[in-house]
## 1
Amino acid sequence: MNYILDTFAVLAYLGDEDGADKVEKLLEKAGKEVKLFMNYVNLGEVYYIVAREFGVAKANEIVAIVKSWGIEFVGVNEGIALTAARIKAMHNLSYADAFVVATAVDRKGVIVTGDREFEGSHPEILWIR
């Protein structure tokens, strides 16, 4: 099974917020029972959110931690970019969130999030809250 991590899920796990336990279970299974993916756009979103709140040094530290988790990072190519654009045009999502959905479409995966803006944007979502 393929799972696509949203920024919401990553930050919930890092902050030990509600739903962190569900993300932790997926991280424990990564590379064994499940494959975890994250788009580089969303890694950048994690970075800027942490940098804005805690500074660039902390953001660099967090990115290094996230990159150690056994996640396969997905780059933006024409197909993903245009899929994200179509999703953004049809749904009330941020552009960064549209890349989560586009990555889920590309990798035939389940989105992992607690962000209710994703409702109706993809048929398979694992709600962490």
Note: The two ends are 20 Å apart (CA to CA).
## 2
Amino acid sequence: MPQTIISLSTRGAGLYEFTDQAEHFVARTGVEEGLLTVFVRHTSCSLLIQENADPDVRRDLDQFFKRLVPRSDDPSMRWIVHTAEGADDMPAHIKAALTQVSIGIPVGDGRLMLGTWQGLYLFEHRDRPHRREIVLHLGG
């Protein structure tokens, strides 16, 4: 079964599209039909399939999650104990727990069967830059 690891550099919190990298991987394998499993190897970021046409969607999602789970130095988050890695760390773990770290995408005719406006995103939940690893595994 074909498998690879791609690496993404983030500049801080936000959504980072990697649809092209996943499509190139699938095309290189020559597999016509199967299931692409996408898995992120970290606990403070997650994966999303989301609209890739209007950047306002990404900004609004990022703002929603910041309001839903503020940094631990926000007065509403005084209950948080895990703060050793900064005020954004435990909230990042919570956001990752609310979303997903693995996604399955059908492959047909050698292509990802995403909808017209769908793209694959790494959702970075930490404030500072990180290098993230994403495993792509194509099963027949």
Note: The CA atoms of residues 47 and 122 lie 5 Å apart.
